[in-house]
Amino acid sequence: MTDKVNDELIIGRVLQGDREAFAALVDKYKSGLYILLLGMGASHQDAQDLAQETFINAYRKLSGHNSQSSFAAWLYTIAVNRFRDVKRRKTFSVASNLPKAQIDGTPTPEEMYMRKESELELHKLLSRLPGRYRIVLLLHYTNDLSYEEISAVTGMSMHQVKNRLYRARQKLRKLWLQPKEASHEKSALHELR
């Protein structure tokens, strides 16, 4: 059973009066929603609050969800719009509690340390990207949305989504390599002396 079909079955149950069924959708999407909001610049507390508000709004407006479109894209659209509304009214504190990566298997302590360092570095670099690039990266890689779904969430055309995702990858790659190139240059200069 595909995710979309499964989501629609759950939505049908909720609309028929089974309020408890909505918990399955919350469980399924709460991590992705939280990570998206953190990545957009919300603090840990703001991301939790906005995720909760998003689920409340989604529950209230569930009858207005178009069954032809993805529930995930619809939910993330609500979250992004709510984030933008709140951001206009107040400034968010910088996210300090970044989510921990899910680790498969049993890595050595050294591997765990290196993964954590890389994850922290990536989140720092993501926070340096403009929001228009950060959101497409997060929606595509963290929340596994298709180009069509990202287009629905952001209101951009498919061409714009692909273009913005390409540019976001390029900017992120450039940021990732900058410190490494600088440290290589410094060590090369040090060796020459």
Task: Report on the architecture of this protein.
- With 193 residues, this protein is mainly α.
- It has helices at 3-15, 22-40, 44-60, 71-89, 109-128, 131-142, 147-154, 158-192.
- The longest helix is centred in the C-terminal third of the chain and has 35 residues, at 158-192.
- The chain is globular.
- The termini are far apart.
Short overview:
The protein has 193 residues and is an all-alpha fold. The protein is built from eight helices and no strands.
Question: What's the arrangement of secondary structure elements?
Answer:
Layout: H1 3-15, H2 22-40, H3 44-60, H4 71-89, H5 109-128, H6 131-142, H7 147-154, H8 158-192
Helix pairs in contact: 2-3, 2-4, 2-6, 3-4, 4-7, 6-8, 7-8
Share of β-strand residues? under 5%
Count up the helices. Answer: 8
Helix content: over 70%
What is the SS-derived class? Answer: mainly alpha
- Give unreliable regions as ranges: 92-104
Report, as a whole number of angstroms, the end-to-end distance.
65 Å
How can the largest sheet be summarized? none
Task: Round the mean pLDDT to the nearest integer and report it.
Answer: 79
How many strands in all?
0
Q: What overall geometry do the principal axes of the alpha carbons give?
A: globular
From the alpha carbons, calculate the radius of gyration and give it in angstroms: 19 Å
Helix-strand pattern: HHHHHHHH
What structural keywords apply?
193 residues; mainly alpha; 8 helices; globular
